[in-house]
Structure formats: C-alpha cells, structure tokens
Write a sequence for this structure.
C-alpha cells in the first residue's frame, strides 16, 4: 500500500471520529456559534471574500450513532462578502454581531447576522490608529453589560472599545507587569479601571529597573486554584504566584 492507504487504514485505530469536508475556499478563522454552527471566512487578496455561517451536518450533532442521516455536508445558513481579507473573526456571545479584522488593517468591521434573511451585513467600522503594513489587529470579545472588543496590532497598543457607542473604554498597555482585574465590576462608564493586583516580580526580582524590564509574554490561571497564576517574560523567567486580595482585609 502507498502512504495514503497506510494512513487511511491506521486512522481506523487512531480516531474515534474523523470527518473531512471541503469549503468553498481556504479560511484562517473557525468561530463556533452555539454547538451546531461555525463561521468561516476567506482571506484572499484583492478580491471579495465570503463570510459564511455554516450549520454542521446532522451526523456531527447527534450524541449517538443513529445510522444513515440525510445531510452529510455543511449547510450555509447565512452569508456575506468582505472587501478585505479576513484574518480574524469573533462572534459576540448572545448577539447577532460579528467583528472581523484583516488587511488592509485600517479598521475593524462590525457585522450583523440578519434575523429575517440569510444575509450577513456590514453595519459599522471601528478605527484602528496603528497602521503597520503587513500586520493586522488581533481581536478578542468579552461580554459584560456593554459588550466590547479588545484589539491591537501590538501589545503596547491594546484598546477596549464599546461596540454600541464605539468609544474607547480602556487603553490597556502591556509591560513587565501582570494586572489582575475584576471584570464583573466593569460598567463601561469609567475612563480608567484600577487593577485588583499588580505582579511586578518580573521587573524587580532579578534587579531589573523599569527601563530595562523584560516584557511579560504570557500568563495562565491554575485550573483549580483561583488565585494562583503562572507568568513568563522575555528574559526566560517563569513565576508561579498566589495573589492576595487586599480588599478582603479592609
């Protein structure tokens, strides 16, 4: 057997379930909507790119094997066209809104999945002040009383914008610290929010000064200890720390 046939036979042992499908074009985004749908989008240059809301085939939705099912491919539920390449796409939970980013990266595009038709339509844009050629803004969505989008080309220029008012509610710069916030208290009205705790160990522990401090590259919460974090910095340091909520002692 040739390598492809070998792999196909071996896959019967390696996978409990495996499904392969062909999309209309290549995509750089896969964004779940509920547990039965996914958004995809094209990223080709100098052409219109489709944004599609696809419903998964029934055979991927059922909990148990129910024999032959009529629909064996993705079904297009909604669709639209972007004049730019789409490199990032996020669905705003509990709404019909999407936010996309791509090239040229002069703005973010806000879309709405229409309720009474199968169209995904552009409704507004969010200006991006960082313009860096081949770079595009990365985006993340968080839900609160007023949904917002976190975006930025570089860590030093991250901003949080309220989707309804289009106002910048927080300008979040990143440096050698890790900031802990209580996002449940964010109401979108304050221009500046104070962190509950600031970890400055990467700045001061190894004798670094503010001007020579390494950049914090990532952090993660311990899966079972709610106030324990791991953080890493550009000087190859890794810290494990359990922070104290000083509000509790007041």
């Amino acid at each position: 057997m040739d390598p492809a046939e070998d792999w196909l036979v071996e896959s019967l042992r390696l996978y409990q379930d495996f499904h392969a499908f062909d999309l209309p074009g290549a995509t750089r985004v896969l964004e779940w909507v509920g547990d039965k749908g996914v958004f995809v989008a094209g990223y080709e240059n100098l052409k219109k790119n489709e944004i599609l809301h696809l419903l998964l085939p029934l055979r991927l939705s059922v909990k148990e094997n129910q024999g032959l099912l009529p629909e064996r491919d993705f079904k297009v539920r909604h669709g639209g066209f972007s004049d730019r390449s789409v490199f990032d796409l996020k669905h705003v939970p509990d709404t019909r809104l999407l936010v996309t980013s791509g090239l040229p990266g002069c703005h973010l595009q806000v879309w709405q999945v229409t309720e009474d038709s199968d169209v995904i339509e552009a409704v507004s844009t969010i200006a991006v002040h960082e313009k860096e050629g081949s770079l595009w803004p990365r985006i993340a969505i968080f839900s609160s009383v007023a949904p917002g989008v976190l975006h930025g080309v570089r860590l030093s220029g991250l901003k949080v914008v309220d989707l309804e008012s289009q106002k910048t509610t927080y300008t979040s710069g990143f440096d050698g610290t890790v900031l802990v916030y209580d996002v449940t208290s964010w109401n979108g009205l304050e221009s500046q929010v104070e962190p509950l705790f600031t970890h400055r160990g990467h700045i001061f522990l190894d004798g670094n000064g503010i001007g020579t401090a390494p950049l914090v590259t990532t952090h993660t919460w311990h899966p079972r200890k709610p106030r324990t974090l791991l953080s890493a910095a550009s000087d190859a340091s890794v810290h494990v720390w359990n922070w104290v909520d000083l509000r509790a002692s007041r």
